[in-house]
Design a protein that fits this description.
The complex is a heterodimer of chains A (249) and B (436). With 249 residues, chain A is of the alpha/beta class. In chain A, 37% of the residues lie in helices and 29% in strands.
């Protein structure tokens, strides 16, 4: 599914990722934890193709393609989805229109027939119920005036509509209350399947009580310094990150 | 006097017009002749060239039976008046209530109103094209709603330009609302095709007595060839309310002057506008809100998208006189350039002589937000389409504030087409989708 090999990336000449390697097979859920500034969000941005980050070394294969050669939108169409830590507000562009444009683009690329507007609206309505996002938000501007929780629900709504192969959740738990966290986790869990993989980036162990990972990795100073199963998350919760600093070469 | 002035006046002389308009026409002709042709040193025309207009070979309007295509009309329950090349087309127009008349159907009282009020706000000694529209005026609309009355349906005035030659079209609308009276006025300007090259001098004057209230729309939806030189001039009495919306797609030159004067305390002006020239089109809005007395408010918001090699000018002036204490005035102008060769000249001007006022003004020129573009791309939307969606969104924010739904629903597909968007979803959005 995803194979990251010795990935190095920088922003404004500052090295952030310093030789990160990670293999993800279909159906697996990988949690990436780590202290602030370790490069967690950078990983998501580099995989999604954000221009500000330049890859200086390494390779990323995604579903047999060289991911780094693809444009941002091509990555999305190939089935990579990044749920933003801070979803962007776009006033004036209706959420419904945005969702349809997005689903149309992805379906077209995958050779699926385009949904009619009526079909799409039904689908969007049903899906918004699943993530407990009031339908009024479909008519509003994209994320415009949404609360933190509503924005994250909207991210999960998009994820469900696009049915990606690989979902990267970038600190999706930040700023969420327990109810919203539960809804987001339910959405993710409902989408878990033998074909779909997840990278769950988080600072806190809490989210992993709801979305139980197969693997937990600790990212520190731009590379993965320790990997384990879900018990590693508990250990980190108890001990913090400092005990790992010795393992940062 | 420029060549175009000479030619236009010669044409005006040969027109037939109601005799009671003679004095107005003569005054206009004299002032038009006496006003030097603007050049780049003329303050009011600093950023907009009239060189193209000066080359037009003007003719008198062609009177021709042309039906305005149904798709060009707004589906309104309104009193509709259709002017084709400035000439009233009875067949396409509705019969009018007592409060509304055209210059051809005025009664004595309305004649007196026109003679005493026409030009009182659209000062032909100050505004070149107000002078021209006086000099060449043959037709027009008078609205007089007496105290406490409300025009029961909107007045919908369609100005259609059609035919090959560059015709000189002069139109006037005069609105007088008595104390506490209310009306909704929709002015629409359209042209048959991109080659249509009329010069349209269209001035509208609105007198609002105490507590009177008007909703006004000025929809400049002409195509490329048109030169529009118009204005909306408003006087507000105590607690009067002007709620205006302006849109200009662009033409050879679409110029509108808005002059609004607060003359009684407690009056309020709300003015919103959008412009979106592309190709080599030019749009020019000059607005001037004069706070003459205390305790008045005004809120003005204009947004523009300028593409290709098009050009827009926005000059927004707020003048707060010495007696206008406790004024609240806001002016915002935001622009989006979607091409390297597009041009915007924006100039907000505050002139304040009172010391206890609250004013805010701002003008911005920007490119599309990279962060939002990236977000859309991460959802599979191409950069190109993302730009279209965001440009539309930028304008749509103001369109969504339009109070008359029929007008909003009419404008949305036009904008969608302008930005190359699909229509179907918009229509679905407009309907209540609970029914699905």
């Amino acid at each position: 599914m995803l194979s990251i090999n010795n990935l190095c990336a920088s922003v404004e000449d500052k090295d952030i990722l310093k030789g990160l390697s990670l293999d993800i097979k279909p159906g697996e859920v990988h949690a990436i934890m780590g202290p602030n500034g370790a490069g967690k969000s950078t990983l998501g941005s580099v995989l999604a193709g954000r221009e500000a980050f330049s890859v200086t070394d390494g390779s990323v294969a995604f579903a047999d393609k060289d991911l780094l050669e693809l444009d941002v939108e091509e990555r999305a169409r190939e089935g990579l989805f990044l749920a933003f830590q801070y979803p962007v507000e776009i006033p004036g562009v209706s959420n419904m229109e945005f969702l349809k444009a997005s689903v149309d683009a992805v379906r077209k690329h995958q050779g699926k027939p385009e949904l009619s507007s009526v079909e799409f609206m039904k689908l969007a309505r049903e899906t918004s119920k699943k993530v407990k996002l009031d339908q009024a938000f479909l008519k509003r501007g994209v994320n415009e005036g949404f609360s933190g929780g509503e924005k994250k629900r909207n991210e999960i709504l998009q994820m469900m509509l696009l049915e990606p192969k690989l979902c990267i959740l970038d600190e999706t738990d930040s700023g969420l209350d327990i109810d919203a966290l539960q809804t987001v986790a339910d959405g993710v869990n409902a989408m878990r399947s033998a074909e779909r993989s997840f990278i769950v980036v988080t600072h806190y162990q809490r989210l992993l009580d709801y979305i139980v990972p197969d693997f937990v990795h600790v990212l520190a100073d731009g590379k993965i310094v320790k990997s384990g199963d879900k018990s590693l998350a508990k250990e980190l919760e108890a001990k913090g990150y400092s005990w790992l600093e010795g393992e940062v070469a | 006097m420029g060549d175009l002035q000479t030619a236009a006046l010669k044409l005006a002389e040969t027109q037939s017009a109601p005799a009671w308009l003679d004095a107005v026409r003569r005054r206009g002709a004299e002032r038009f002749a006496a006003t030097p042709w603007p050049n780049r040193r003329t303050e009011n025309w600093k950023y907009t060239s009239l060189a193209g207009l000066a080359k037009k070979e003007l003719r008198l309007p062609e009177v021709q039976p042309v039906s305005v295509p149904e798709k060009d009309l707004i589906a309104l329950d309104a009193y509709k008046l259709v002017f084709v090349n400035g000439v009233l087309d009875q067949a396409q127009s509705d019969s009018l209530p007592d409060a509304v008349a055209t210059f051809a159907s005025v009664n004595e009282q309305q004649i007196e109103l026109v003679q005493s009020r026409l030009g009182a706000l659209a000062d032909s000694s100050q505004h070149l094209f107000a002078a021209l529209s006086e000099a060449a005026s043959t037709e027009g609309v008078v609205v007089h709603v007496t105290a406490g009355q409300k025009l029961d349906k909107p007045l919908y005035v369609v100005n259609y330009s059609s035919g090959e030659a560059a015709q000189l079209i002069a139109t006037r609308v005069l609105v007088v609302l008595g104390v506490g009276a209310e009306a909704e006025i929709i002015e629409q300007f359209i042209s048959s095709d991109a080659q249509q090259a009329n010069l349209v001098a269209a001035q509208t004057e609105i007198f609002l007595a105490d507590n009177a209230s008007v909703q006004h729309y000025r929809l400049n939806l002409e195509q490329e060839g048109i030169t529009h030189a118009g204005g909306v001039f408003v006087e507000l009495g105590r607690d009067a309310n002007f709620d205006g919306f302006a849109i200009a797609k662009g033409g050879e030159l679409i110029r509108n002057d808005y002059v609004l004067e607060h003359c009684g305390p407690g009056a309020h002006v709300e003015l919103q506008g959008v412009y979106m020239p592309r190709g080599q089109q030019v749009v020019d809005y000059h607005t001037n809100i004069k706070h003459r007395v205390a305790h008045c408010t005004s809120n003005e918001v204009f947004r523009g998208i300028i593409g290709d090699r098009a050009k827009a000018v926005f000059n927004g002036r707020i003048h707060i006189f010495e007696d206008a204490q406790k004024t609240l005035a806001e002016l915002s102008n935001k622009n989006l350039l979607t091409s390297n060769r597009a041009e915007i000249d924006t100039k907000p001007e505050l002139e304040i002589y009172a010391d206890d006022v609250k004013c805010a003004h701002g003008a911005t020129v920007a490119q599309l937000d990279d962060e939002a573009l990236y977000y859309l791309q991460t959802r599979g939307v191409s950069k190109e389409q993302a730009k279209v969606m965001m440009s539309f969104g930028f304008i749509n924010e103001l369109i969504q504030t339009i109070k008359n739904e029929a007008v909003m629903n009419y404008l949305l597909p036009i904008l969608a087409e302008q930005f190359g968007r699909e229509n179907e979803l918009l229509q679905l959005e407009a309907e209540s989708f609970d029914e699905l």
